[in-house]
């Protein structure tokens, strides 16, 4: 009985985490969705750490505000969607 309850409790906690924090992985997550989530999390981490923004700004010889803006803009569309089958066929011909 306790194993059944523990299993239910673990799944309930996992479902709660998925609802509370979007982007946490699940079994049906595709390659594109996973990569998008990783890129968004990385950019959000850059924006949230002032020292990291300063480091990137020095490396790119840009103001910190510009680096923050670029990170925020890259969070909108972090990676391009993979080409569909029809698009790949058009490119090959």
UniProtKB/TrEMBL annotation:
CC terms in the record's Gene Ontology section: precatalytic spliceosome; U2 snRNP
A family per Pfam: SF3b10
GO-annotated biological processes: mRNA splicing, via spliceosome
Domain of life (superkingdom): Eukaryota
PANTHER family: SPLICING FACTOR 3B SUBUNIT 5
Similarity comment text for this entry: Belongs to the SF3B5 family.
Identification of the protein by name: Splicing factor subunit
